[in-house]
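pasting input
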Amino acid sequence: MTSSSLTSPQDAPAVQGRSLWQDAWRRLLANRAALVSLIVLTLIAIAAVFGPLFLPWSYDQIDWDHVEAMPPDFASGHYFGTDSLGRDLLARTLFGGRISLMVGILATFVALTIGVTVGTVAGYVGGKTDQFLMRFVDLMYSVPLTFFVIILMVFFGRNFILMFLAIGAVEWLTMARIVRGQTLTLRSKEFIEAARASGGSTPAIILRHIVPNVLGVVMVYVTLTIPNVILLESFLSFLGLGVQEPMTSWGMLINDGAAELEINPRTLIIPAAFMTATLFCFNFLGDGLRDALDPKDR
Amino acid sequence: MSVLDIKALDVRFANTDGEVAAVSSLSLSVEKGECLGIVGESGSGKSQTFLAAMGLLAPNGRTSGEVMFGDTNLLTADEKTLNDLRGDKLAMIFQDPMTSLTPHMKIGRQLTEVLVRHRGLSATFARDRAIAMLRRVQIPEPERRFNMYPFELSGGLRQRVMIAMALLCGPELIIADEPTTALDVTVQAQILDLIRKAKEELETAVILITHDLGVVAGLADRVGVMYAGRLVELGDVRQIFKAPRHPYTKGLLACTPRLDDATGGTMPTIPGQPPNLQNLPAGCAYHPRCPFIMDRCRVERPPLRPTPTGSLSACFLEGSPS
Amino acid sequence: MWSYFARRVAIGIPTLWAVITVCFFLMRLTPGGPFDAEAPVPQEVLNNLRARYHLDDPLWQQYVDYLVNLLRGDFGPSFKYHDFSITTLIAQGLPVSLENGFCALILAIVIGVPLGIAAALAQNTRRDYVISATAMTGIVIPNFIMGQVLILIFGVWLKNSIFHLPAGGWNDGAFANRILPVFCLALPYVAYLVRITRGSMIEAVRANYIRTARAKGLPFRLVVLRHALKSALIPVVTFLGPATAFILTGSMVVETIFQIPGIGRYFVQGALNRDYTLVMAVTILGAALIIAMNLAVDLIYIWLDPRVRYDQQ
């Protein structure tokens, strides 16, 4: 038993005016690892989105004066040097980050949409629908889904849209399970009863009352899914199934760099450092969010 | 000779907003063979006081003061010393029998491990002793239950198992933390009866923590009433029921339903809200709810003082030269 | 208990059938085939090829034939390695992958679970932070980077020292050739297990019955090992199912980097070559493996939590 159980819920005056979200936000900012992660992520995202606009070289432009991989050189504007084809490494890393982050966010959004829909419907409607949907999820769990993503990428070509659709279609399973669990506990709550008693339709109740209340858990899971997707994309790039040249992503840059690891480690280390930092931050942020929204051991 | 002697005990919990005082300068003692009832609302610090004595506080809990058990100060004793006492001379029964037994271990093993730990008994001896103890706490077919898992037993039976576990080594002190709260009313009486028998037959001292005055009335010799982490009244059980001194105790007694209540009116309640430990009122913590409030109650904290009935009470109504 | 087990098996079989069916039609209905890769082939040759592989039969006929052959343990001929049947390829590759996967799994459990427990019991201390941060590193660094780095260190930099390890190849499963791939395969796994064990152990020691066990005077170590460990292991065991899938995916990477003739590499090559039958065979095997692992998980549950035994009757 901790001190939190010593204070009774009626002590409203002491915590007046602090909503659940404000409270969680305050706790999140108090968590140093999460706060630093949030700042670093914001910086990386801003750099990836706007950075390329301010660089002297674009990601696919070949500097014919430096076609060999070149160490950082400020005079020619290659702040991180160039790759083996004479392309600016910083520009490529930032542009690759744009693609990696975009795939991560879009695929997670796909997973989120499917997962929340299936989870809330299964949990709220219950009965046969629930059984059917959850059986299906169980079934999907015993399928080697990465194999299917690879098969899809091979047979339908390396297509950017298909990539995040396919990854999203793989990642929704856990989300659906978690959301269903939350919905089940919500369903028996009084305010849902009240909404039902006052004649709310099922979709309306799900949208207006269930979804907002599962948002916390979903947000934690989203933060932890994005890095998974970025990893999966880099894995596809490693197999040569990622985005197509001259487009690039962190995974592709790392893969290119790995090939030159012995002669030119810089081309591996720089994109790898960006990607690893991003993954770290997402994971720390996710852990921090979970603690902030579920203050069990406060 | 007192079995347990608590002097100026403070229990605090560190959290993100600073520290919360769960128990403040609490002193009391328990005599051999005596049953001391501790009454209070949830959050009054009654459980934390004795968890602190057992060395079982949550990791963020801090203590100061002194809890003497024989010659040992339980607050400063090392883990080894505590472990030698716990389960042997010092036993505890917890509130919720449904979750207080390890779900994946058979009852028998959970009992015998105590004897193996403290008495060094062999498996067969331990088994015999454990089954004998199960019989003693009136568990039917003890040989069969011995090989069962907790989830195969009812709540009442599980609490009997907990009691058997506490009695195995013949402890000098049993701390029973709300032993009947999670149980049916009929089972409650049986469990209390078991505790009474243990106390009488083994001359064990019992500390009975509860929010239910009825439980205390049936079993305790003395009663301590706690409010917001402090002892507000302490005295003989009959005196306290007959002539409560502290306004909070009076309030509690007035709220207890009585079968002989002929008025047939509504149940009285104590107005206001239980105290928030994070934000205690200055002076006497009970003053916002007290019907006898005086000016000095808002600024000054009343000490625990003797009263004409022999009880101790922490209220300015006592001894004020009026 | 056995009826419970039988029911789980009964769920597994239709799952496998569904995987086979989806896989089959996905393969046959996608544009492009195994033979339209390089230089254009004369129509006549193409027809001959299609006839040889029964690709000119009606689709349902092909499907039924495939299922029937599968029941006989025959995965059909490879579209690319003309002289091999898929069954032969699998018979060569599967043991290699299984051995590596199994070694990695054991290694990961032996390292990951104790580390997770150590971190949990020292929650929010320096030891916890160091272990957790290291585990996080294992999760965020993809094993294709890790593999390359390991090769660079042990295969290149330490070439002339006693720590030198082969940078690749299988060499019929020589011990030295296994070390790096198994380690590389196990690493992300170790990391996940540390995180899962840490979380579940923190949860487990908060249970009321842990307080009871401590109140009995049992030493803390014994309390953890005897009373907390079993319930803390439930999420760890649950992870074994998905972990099989991870190992399969990981074997694609590791076998490609270290040039090991296992089914992971076959799958990658098969996919890139559009070798339908090979890709299908590996996918089906993978699904069978995951299903089998989930069954094993169910059996371990029964041991970990006796309630399961009774609830299902």
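fyi Chain A touches chain C at residues 138-139, 141-148, 150-152, 154-156, 227, 231, 234-235, 238-240, 251, 254-255, 258, 261-262, 268, 272, 276, 279-280, 283-284 (CB under 8 Å).
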